[in-house]
Structure formats: structure tokens, C-alpha cells
What we know:
This protein has helices spanning 7-25, 91-99; strands at residues 27-33, 55-63, 82-90, 104-113. It is of the alpha+beta class. The protein starts with 6 loop residues before the first helix and ends with a strand.
Amino acid sequence: xxxxxxxxxxxxxxxxxxxxLMLFQSCYSVRLVNTKGIPEPDIxxxxxxxxxxxxxxxxxxxxxxxxxNEFSLLEKCPSGGFYSIEYRVxxxxxxxxxxxxxxxxxxxxxxxxxxx
Length: 116
């Protein structure tokens, strides 16, 4: 009995797996910018919006206890203010939050401080 794998079935499964992997990479971000401030400079940075700006990244997973519904991240800038704050949500983070009923949240925040 010769049982060869069906190439059409194998390619369909591969296609579905590729689509699922691409969905896990999808995301959105929200950026708030202070239009009257001057960002802290960094001449070595050549990265899109953050070109010539010194930025800090917080990439962590927050675990909440049963009675908690929210969390706070407290960060300080030496100058006392923020030039920009970007909050990013990925599909993987949204799925993690959904599967844990909101008790684990993946947080990615990127911020730029004001110049002294």
C-alpha cells in the first residue's frame, strides 16, 4: 500500500501556517508627541521617527492579581517631561491578554525625554 502525502494538502497547510505567523506579527501603535518641546538629542540614532532622538524602550509582561483591572508604569525623565510616548500592541499580546482574561498583558512603550 503506497501512501504518498498529497502535495496540494501539504501546500494548503503551509499556506495556512504562513498566514497565522503573519497575523502574529500584525500590530498597531499610538504615539503622543509634545509639539512645543525639544527632544533629547542622540546623533547616532537613524531610526525613522526617532532619528536624532534619544529613546528608551520598555518591553515587559505585566501580571495582574484577581481584583486588579489596571496597572501603572512610572518612569521619570531627568528634564521632568516627555517629548513623545509610543504604546504598541501586537496581535500576540492581544491574544495573551484574551487567553488569560486580561490578567497578563504584554506592554511595549517607547519614549523620548525633553531636552534639559
